[in-house]
Amino acid sequence: MIPSRKEVIDAYYRVQPYVHNTPVLKSSYLNSLSGTEVYFKCENFQKMGAFKMRGAINAILQLSEAQKEAGVVTHSSGNFAQAVSLAAQKVGVKAHIVMPSNAPSVKQEAVKGYGGLITISEPTLAAREAAAATIEKETGATFLHPSNNKEVILGNSTAAYELLHSHPEIEIILTPVGGGGLVAGTALAAHYIGNNCKVVGGEPFAVDDAYRSLQSGKIEINETTNTVADGLRTNLGAINFPIIKELVSEIIRVEEEEIIAAMRLIWERMKIIIEPSCAVPFAAVLKEKQKFKHKKIGIILSGGNVDVKKLPF
C-alpha cells in the first residue's frame, strides 16, 4: 500500500519545527563537467549530519502517549543511531540503541551525547536484532527500523518535498540506495509534489541488491558488503520495496573508483564535507552523462558523517 499525498504533506508540516530546511547548492564547474544543471540538497547540513533525522523524528512524533512513555529501540552502527537519539531527546522519549562492538567510538560518543542508552552487541545482524528484541520485550519500547518503516519513509520524503517546493523545475532527483528508505521517500515526494519529476537511484556494483530487485521483482540480498559507501551495505525491506518498484525509474550502478572520484570533486569544488555514500548519485550522473544532458537534476546529499582520518582519497 503506497502512502497517500496527504500523508506526505502531513509529514512535511509535522517535522518542520524539528529539522533544518537545508540549503540547496550549485556549482558551475560541476554543471559544466556533467553537462547538466545540478541542485544539491545538502542534508549533510541537517541536524546530526544526515537526512535520517527526518525519518526518526516523524516516526517518534507519530507514537501514542503510552508508546512515548515506554521509549523506542533501534539497532544501528551509525547515522540512524544518532538520529533516533537526538529525535527522542527533542520530544523527551527514552531511546535504547543497540550498537555493534565494532561501531566507531566517535559514533558511540555522539549517541551518548544525544542521550541514547547504548547496548553493545556482537557485530552480526542476528546479534543486533536479538539484542533489540530483548530490550523491546523487557521495556515495552517500540522498535524503529532505519529504512523499512512507513513513518520513517514519510519523514525522509520531506527532503525532496523541500527541494521541489523551492525548485519545481527539477526533472529528475537522484539519491543513494542502501536500505531503501530515502529513495522510497524521495519517490513519494516526486510523485505527489513534482512536475513529472522522475526518481533515479545510485548504487555501488558491490552492493547492487536494489538494482537486482527491480530486475527480478523480488527483494534480492547482497552477498558482499565490500564498498567504500558504508551507509549502503543494507538491504531493501517489504515496506519500501513496493514504493520503489512502482515509483523509481531506474537504479544506476557505479564502480568504487567512480564513487571516490565524485566524492573528491564535491569536497574540492564545493568545499563541503560529504560521506562516500553521498557521492554515489553524482557518480551516476557523471557515468551516464548522455542520459542527463541539459536536464535539471536534484541530488540529495544524504549526509556528512565521515571519519576524516580515513578518507578514501
Automatic annotation (TrEMBL):
Keywords attached to this entry: Pyridoxal phosphate
Cofactor: pyridoxal 5'-phosphate
Residue stretches making up the Tryptophan synthase beta chain-like PALP domain: 16-303
InterPro entries cross-referenced by the UniProt entry: TrpB-like_PALP (IPR001926), TrpB-like_PALP_sf (IPR036052)
Pfam families: PALP
Classification via SUPFAM superfamilies: Tryptophan synthase beta subunit-like PLP-dependent enzymes
Annotated coiled-coil segments of the chain: none
Domain of life: Bacteria
Record-given protein name: Pyridoxal-phosphate dependent enzyme
Organism this protein belongs to: Jejudonia soesokkakensis
Lineage start: Bacteria, Pseudomonadati, Bacteroidota, Flavobacteriia, Flavobacteriales
